[in-house]
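Observation: inputs received (chain + magnesium ion).
Thought: call the complex predictor directly.
Action: predict_structure
Action Input:
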Amino acid sequence: MMNLKQLVLASHNAGKLKELQAMLGESVQLRSIGEWSNVEPEETGLSFVENAILKARNAARISGLPALADDSGLAVDFLGGAPGIYSARYADGKGDAANNAKLLDALKDVPEAERGAQFVCVLALVRHADDPLPILCEGLWHGRMLTAASGEHGFGYDPLFWVPERDCSSAELTPADKNQISHRARAMDLLRQRLGLK
Ligand SMILES: O=P(O)(O)OP(=O)(O)OP(=O)(O)OC[C@H]1O[C@@H](n2cnc3c(O)ncnc32)[C@H](O)[C@@H]1O
Ligand SMILES: [Mg+2]
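Observation:
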């Protein structure tokens, strides 16, 4: 079994680090790959799984530690699942605000009943860079796309994602509440089971 006291998180996204560390608790210390390198690997895969594995291997190679990667995104029904794996790059790398503005515009005249969407999270854990058997866990979170941004918590597309089970946007949830029910929480729940942490 791998030493799980320290894991490298193969991500440069501070929002993910915060959420994943909160879910894991104090028994596992997540260290950002940013401690070793600021170069982000190109996400050349065609699926969340491929990109998660690619990021995890890259971080394990650079750090020499077991690595966890999170590849996630928003799949909007009306857009055939876009932006999907391209969620971070939807507005050509101009950041969260530009991504959200572009998405609101793409859904401008779409009626309520057709605004379904899901957040997707795939976690990949590798023991070392060439691990032939990465642990893969997936989580989905169903909701709807709002017609205007709302809320200040979270990151990324959270202000646009309406959460039916709480009747508010994902950015209006407290961090603790989001971490109980999100796509990332579901994937992490499976990962903890696979690792015997629960
Ligand atoms: O690849 P790393 O370095 O981990 O960081 P990233 O931000 O580029 O992460 P992804 O490639 O996985 O892209 C995820 C996209 O989906 C968005 N996203 C993922 N989880 C989210 C969440 O919980 N709430 C809001 N947006 C989320 C996020 O803002 C990005 O635009
Ligand atoms: Mg990325």
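Thought: report the result.
Final Answer: The pocket of magnesium ion (ligand 2) is lined by residues 43, 88 (CB under 6 Å). The mean pLDDT is 96.
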